Amino acid sequence: MAYKELDHEKLGEFQDFDEHKKVIRIADEKAGLTAFIAVHNTNLGPALGGCRMFGYKSEDEAIRDVLRLSRGMTYKNAMAGLPLGGGKSVIIGNPYTDKTQEMMRSMGCAIESLGGEYITAEDSGTGEKDMQAIAQETSYVVGLPDGKEGHIGGDPSPMTAYGVYCGMKAAAMRRYGKDSLEGLTVAIQGLGAVGYGLCGLLHKAGVNLVATDVRGEVVSKAKKDFPGIVIVPTNDIFSVEANIFSPCALGAQLNDSTIPQFHFDIIAGAANNQCAAAKHHRILADRGILYVPDYVLNAGGVISAAYEYFFRSGDNPFRCELSRDSMVAHVERIGSTLTKVFNIADAKGVTPAQAADEMAEGRFSSNGGASRKSQSSAG
Ligand code: NAD
Fold first, then answer.
1. What b/e readout covers 321-333, taking b as 16+ CB neighbours within 10 angstroms?
2. Would you please indicate which residues are annotated as catalytic (active-site) residues?
3. Which atom of ligand 1 lies at the shortest distance from residue 249's CA?
4. Pocket test for ligand 1, best of 248, 274, 303, 331 (most atoms within 8 A of CB)
5. Are strands 47-48 and 51-54 parallel, antiparallel or unpaired?
6. pLDDT 10s digits, 242-288
7. What is the pTM of this model?
8. Of 179, 242, 341, 360, which is least surrounded by CB within 10 A?
């Protein structure tokens, strides 16, 4: 196994390099592992961010992704009010055909070698089982199953869905002056772990649901579980009449071809990097559409992961007791954080995304100033 820290000269070739603290290349031929760990910023605490496994076509593509994702985690953790920095890891390979226990354990050894500077968790292409394999080699891992009632942590998706729900309520309050979503129509793209959970919460709250997914089985299940849900073909989700559009599938869904089709007042979804380019934040604002900054809204999962980490490490940085109730209350504060973001955006005449970036940079920058590259300018 070999670990190599990439030098800043090489990293400077990448547009997404933002003076990251450290980027490590991991190569373990025996375990079939090629991976990168990026630590973007640790001013607020150790870097927490998931481990993604994806069939990147080249190492440069994987480096680009890990640089972008780790910086995003610095912003997300800062805005979630967590004493944590931003980091991320990526494994090159197909998660369905290339993954082995040995590979994940080797990843655990690499994480352990950083001595706690980086803490990992599930991300796209990895799950609880992988975190269990990593945990055989290091304690710097969260998202582990427990099974006990009142357990903090585990699969982050339900808390992500709950945070999106709380943030939607804050956005509806802003737009319509009412704290309830009842009677509104929400269009959801993607009925996966987060989108499906969100549908459940919205259905219970008396919201009219319109949804789409590429997977037939999940659509059939949704029709049974949520009577009255309207299912549309995937390309039609952008043009339905709804109060809120919730992208919960892929990034870059707010772009030159989709925005002109919108009949929405609010965009509030779980997907990361929803705007294809920085200009789309302004285009949405000019059209009077309230865009809820993605990394503020979808922080429920990382809040759950952070509580799990602090609970297990015995190091409680909060004034409250570490319990499931205090963790859920922390997720609910996503709503009040968003209200602050909207107020600042209005007062300064900037988009909510810019307001969120500035707030986050004020929290994590050692000099209280701006990062070299802001998050929303990354698209
Ligand atoms: P998931 O993979 O479980 O679900 C995604 C769903 O989108 C799947 O059901 C998939 O079939 C569907 N989909 C894919 N392409 C589609 C298309 N073109 N049109 C409609 N549906 C399509 O993922 P998830 O965990 O639910 O996460 C959803 C999004 O939220 C992702 O972008 C993820 O990065 C982001 N996110 C997730 C979490 C979390 O806790 N899971 C936290 C923060 C952000």
1. ebeeeebbebbbe
2. 88
3. 7
4. 248
5. unpaired
6. 999 999 998 999 999 999 999 999 999 999 999 999 999 999 999 99
7. 0.94
8. 179
Residue where the block lists tokens 């655990």? 108
Q: Sorting pLDDT into bands at 50, 70 and 90, what band is 145?
A: confident
What length is written for the chain?
379
Whether ligand 1 lies within 6 angstroms of the CB of 214 is answered as yes
CA–centroid distance, residue 157 to ligand 1 (Å): 10
Amino acid identity of 10? K
Among 335, 322, 326, 350, CA closest to 268:
335
Cα-to-centroid distance, 299 and ligand 1 (Å): 15
CB 191 within 8 Å of CB 214: no
Q: Is 188 in the pocket of ligand 1 (CB under 6 A)?
A: no
Domains of the chain are: 2-75+86-134 (3.40.50.10860), 150-379 (3.40.50.720)
Q: Which of 231, 250, 294, 297 to mutate to test the pocket of ligand 1 (most atoms within 8 A of CB)?
A: 250
Under 8 Å CB-to-CB from 361, ≥6 apart: which residues?
75, 78, 369, 370, 371, 374
150: exposed, middle or buried (Cβ count in 10 Å: 0-12, 13-18, 19+): exposed
C-beta of 248 in contact with ligand 1 (< 6 A): yes
